[in-house]
Design brief:
homodimer, 10 helices, 78% helix, 0% strand, DNA-binding
DNA sequence: CAAATCATGTCACGGTGTGACACGTTTGGT
DNA sequence: ACCAAACGTGTCACACCGTGACATGATTTG
């Protein structure tokens, strides 16, 4: 097996690239499936065979994030609790994601295009679900606790990302690790000062 | 002005009721605009004149929640910090919402129909945006802090609601205030124990 | 080389959401 | 009471979304 899978992978990349280009230029809602298909040179039907919607085509790689985060529970340092561990993993993951070229492009879109939120939110819901289920499955936390941990971790991720994106649009070059740690720090202060 | 506004209000209620009935019976995705229009006895076009989508028709009353929460910042007790204040307001609001008949119906839908999440999430995004903007506007918090507060408050609301909804489906009759306070308590433990 | 599998295009279809226009009703001023 | 403006509704038309079914040609497998 070679030609088919290679072609398929190339096509996925091509569709994703075309979608990102077009959305940056025209906006999310103004970009139709027809536009994407025309740019790649395929039929609309085929676009749907690769991605369930333009939103999916825009953010194909977030599953790895979920997997890494869910899988990270095994390596618990037990020094700062489950929440602290997960946030630390998030911080590193965040720094890693920033290096990926599409991350910055999508970040800018996130701020400038309100319609983008629905794309991001769907991924985050999946993360919360997977993470909380995993936490419950390990038997260390009960339902409410697991949900809270997953929600707070996701909230931190989102806040850091949004702050990063805002800086990006403003032309400020921020250090992702620093930014994420500031987020964690402020999060802690919320509970220890109040 | 009387007849028109009354008719309009009645129509809104009618559409909302029909939507809720149908979604409970058939599920969200299986319920079309045509179904709703037929049940109310109006054209599809008119349904869209009252609600932008069936999702909107399903949850029309959440704006008041946002208003109350955003407006509550003025009455700050300063004993437990902004976050504590907001969570307390949420607790009372939650108990109040539960008494509304639609709240329980929607809660059950939320657990049984995964497609419902997108309805809820949109409202929550609006809440986060309004709340964080308001917090920043008051000048007490900077951007990241305000975002975090809004996200955490929303996360607590969602966790409490989801727990309540699960109990509801399981036939467990839970006290909303108690449940929300357990959520707040566990939230605090996450940071003071870890 | 032949059969099975796969990717793609084409066509058709139901559903969503919006704009434009016509017609009847309500409203407010005279 | 009458009339014009504003409003609500239905109808029609349209673009877009997403899916199922089928035909066709390329790839893989034996």
């Amino acid at each position: 097996m070679g030609i088919r899978e290679e072609r398929r992978a190339r096509m996925r990349r091509e569709i994703q690239g075309a979608t990102l280009d077009l959305v940056e230029k025209q906006g999310l809602d103004a970009t139709t499936i027809g536009d994407i298909a025309a740019r790649v040179g395929i039929s609309e039907r085929t676009v749907f065979r690769y991605y369930a919607s333009k939103e999916h085509a825009l953010m194909p790689g977030q599953q790895s994030l979920i997997d890494t985060l869910v899988g990270s529970e095994s390596a618990h340092s037990t020094s700062s609790g489950i929440l602290g561990d997960l946030l630390a993993v998030c911080r590193d993951l965040f720094a890693q994601e920033v290096e990926q070229s599409d991350f910055r492009r999508i970040s800018r879109l996130m701020v400038q295009e309100p319609a983008m939120t629905r794309v991001v939110v769907r991924q985050e819901r999946k993360l919360v679900e997977a993470l909380s289920a995993s936490l419950v499955g390990r038997g260390q936390l009960e339902s409410i606790q697991a949900l809270l941990v997953a929600e707070v971790v996701t909230a931190a991720w989102r806040v850091a990302w949004q702050s990063f994106a805002r800086n990006e649009v403003d032309g400020v070059d921020s250090d992702p690790v620093e930014l994420f740690e500031k987020t964690i720090c402020e999060l802690g202060k919320l509970f220890h000062e109040g």
